[in-house]
Amino acid sequence: MESVMKGKTITLSIALFAISICAFSQDPGQRMKEAEELYQKGDYFNAAELYKSLYKEGYRSDNLLFNTGNACFKAADYGNAILYYERAALLDPASEDINYNLQIARTKITDRFDEIPELFFIRWFDFLSLLKSTNQWATIAMVLFILAMAFIVLFLFAPAGRYKYPSFWSGIAAVILSGITLIFAIRSNNLVNHNKEAIVICSEVVGKSSPGDTGKDLFVIHSGAKVVVLQRLGDFSEIALPDGNKGWTSAKCIEKI
Amino acid sequence: MTKKYLLFLVSLLLTCSVMGQATAIEINAPESVTAGTGFRIVYTVNETSGKFLAPRFDESFSVNGPSISTSHSTQWINGNMSSTSSTTYMFFVVAQKEGTFTIPPAQYAMKNATVSSASLTINVSNSQSSASGGGVSTSSGQRQSSSGEEVYLRFILSSDQVYVGQPVEVKLKIFTRRQISNPGTGISYPDFKGFLKKDIKIPQLQSLENETINGVQYGTGILDKFLLYPQMPGDIKIDRAQMQILVQEKNDFDDPFFGGSIFSNMVNTPRTISTLPVNIHVKPLPSPQPAGFSGAVGKFEMTSSISKDNVQVNDAVTYTVTLSGSGNIGLAGVPVFEVPASIEKYDPKVTANAEGNTGNKTYEFLLIPRHSGDFVIPGIDYVCFDIASGKYVTLKTPSKKITVVPGNGTSETSQPAATSTDKEDVKYLGQDIRFIKTGSYKLAMIKPSKVENTAYYLTYLLALVLTACVIVAIRQYLRMNSDNDLTRNRKAAQVAGKRLKKAQDCLKAKDYTTMHEEIAKAIWGYLSDKLIIPLSELTIDNCVSVLSDRNVPAETVSEFKSIINSCEYSRFAPSSGNDSPEEIYGRSERLIGVLENIL
What we know:
The complex is a heterodimer.
Chain A: H1 2-24, H2 28-41, H3 44-56, E1 59-60, H4 62-74, H5 78-91, H6 96-107, H7 120-131, H8 134-157, H9 164-193, E2 197-200, E3 204-208, E4 217-222, E5 226-233, E6 236-240, E7 246-250, E8 254-256
Antiparallel strand pairs in A: 2-5, 2-8, 3-4, 5-6, 6-7
Chain B: H1 2-17, E1 25-28, E2 32-34, E3 38-45, E4 51-53, E5 61-77, E6 80-95, E7 99-103, E8 107-109, E9 114-116, E10 120-125, E11 151-157, E12 161-163, E13 168-176, E14 180-181, E15 187-188, E16 195-200, E17 209-213, E18 216-230, E19 234-238, E20 242-251, E21 265-274, E22 278-283, E23 293-306, E24 310-312, E25 317-327, E26 343-345, E27 349-355, E28 358-369, E29 373-377, E30 381-386, E31 391-396, E32 400-405, E33 444-445, H2 454-508, H3 512-531, H4 540-549, H5 554-572, H6 581-598
Parallel strand pairs in B: 2-10, 12-22, 23-30, 24-32
Antiparallel strand pairs in B: 1-3, 3-6, 4-8, 5-6, 7-10, 8-9, 11-13, 13-18, 14-20, 15-20, 16-18, 17-18, 19-22, 20-21, 23-25, 25-28, 26-28, 27-28, 29-32, 30-31
Helix pairs in contact in B: 2-3, 2-6, 3-5, 3-6, 4-5, 5-6
């Protein structure tokens, strides 16, 4: 009797699981629409949850991240709003809307750090490398490299005359461009996929002098603050504040961009 | 009094006639009492002539009395008269300590005999209400002297469990069993720390009301009344309030016959009476407080009205908001609402009409529309704390519409919208984030990064290797080709020699046409091999330019030209040869020899 019951329970749970999977993995476009409707109705919390679930399943789009940030913002979750705006800005650094909303969200947070702006050429370099995705840059680099090889062959065997020198200089230029685009690809990859910067998403986080609860409290930061993650040890991360102070915090409370 | 006295005499006479009846003392007393609470012990004797000897009460009892009353009844039944009479001695006792006490027998002494009552056991249990915070406690304070419990003050609280801001109505009440004079003057209150006190006017105390507390009759009256608004959470103690009072006291003159009250000598003595300290438990308002909480605690209603809904530009409109109900209405905050930017809002005129903790409060906002149009004054959301449910509630008023029509000519100048050349800066009313991106956009799945993939770099290597292979292959091919040329170059003279040999044979056979052909072939073939020019591209001009490039002397080049020309001529016009075939053959031989030396 009991085994029958157990069997039934298992079947039931499998069926439920299947249903939930079906419900969950429905067409992402449809869920996007649903989240949009929730947002327009003013149910910001659930809209944000739906958007976040899409993100967590691996869907990426600057608009998706922008909308996620907006929903979090309207649900007064400024930490997550900044997190998603920052992520969106990595996918589309030139978007004026994303940067505007990010600025507004930053006015809502508690902590104020005097952030030292990066050198202009690093800023430009990062901006350029984010204009295209890392894989686009990588493809461009590859095409340019193959082109450069072709130019070199042409240069080596073309009879002296019209093609000799143009193909030489084109080959050199293609090699240099290929190298630059490869650097862009690597930089873009580092910024998007291996960003060391993280945003505090808990409302308050205490920075301690050592990982664990025994450490001395060094500082308190609040949601939305941007920190740099230096290393991770178990459930604790060592973070550096924009002003250079370092401390250990719970890894659950910060999320990498 | 005289009536009572007469009656007493009559009863004396009557008792004589019923002397045969046995005398006994009955006791009426509770078995168990609470410490600090008054109770009665009543001894009833069915005799009136003797003397009652009160028992010795334990020292921890405070005893008042006895008060004495006598009763007689006479019956005539079928001509037989039966008469009974009894005396009742009533003691008011307050047990001060807990424990079990035995009261010894009371005795009744008559002319010829003495009767005793039974002894009495009373169980005094611990007092439960003696120090309870509730001001309603009417128990006599244990610490007070026996005379203190005859006259005392108490705070009567409407509630002793309140929220911050919830008003507590406090009455100062006097309890007395004595005649008192000048009550209600000279009250000294403690400082109500942690409270905001608001007095309520009540009429002067005229007469005391009778009230029985634990079987004891008191004259009571309310001396003062006020509201306390707690300002902070916690257990807050209110200290004693004191009052000077004149109490009529008798000189103790124990008249066992008539009780104390008849012939006692009354004296007014000043006395200080005080209340017991009471505790009020002030609960904090639940956290978190919602945004826009007005500070109002209680039960409220809110209504709003507008004086006109159709006005001219610059005409004032009064927007009235009325808050009514019970609670800390005097401390309730001003309702907040936003008006359209074209309407000017002024600070409200506040009229409070609150008696005690109920009443209403009116806020009159003056609104002046500065532009014409249809405007909506949004409703007010007023958050207050409802004590009954222990929750925050939001009072809502509906939004109001105003239609503003352009004023007549006089007010035109202050209405810059239509005709005036004055321009206004764009008004920025607020800041918000930009709206979400709607419509369908492409959602891409996250892809593995190419730059982290070794295959990507292997592709580079592959491209390099391929290029290298291509280069090597082309090199090889070219080398092979150049090897061919070299052989031909080397064997050029030999090949030309063979052709010339044939030409010589033809010369001997006098076949001049074939000879010229052979000579031309020999020279062209030689140049083709020597200069590595394909036969198809071979022309005289071509050869001349290449030969000049290779520093061949001009006379040799012209010699080459003239031989070729001669050969061509003689091939097509054999008879008109200006040079003999032998000469041409000889010159060809020499030319090839010269070229062989140079090239």
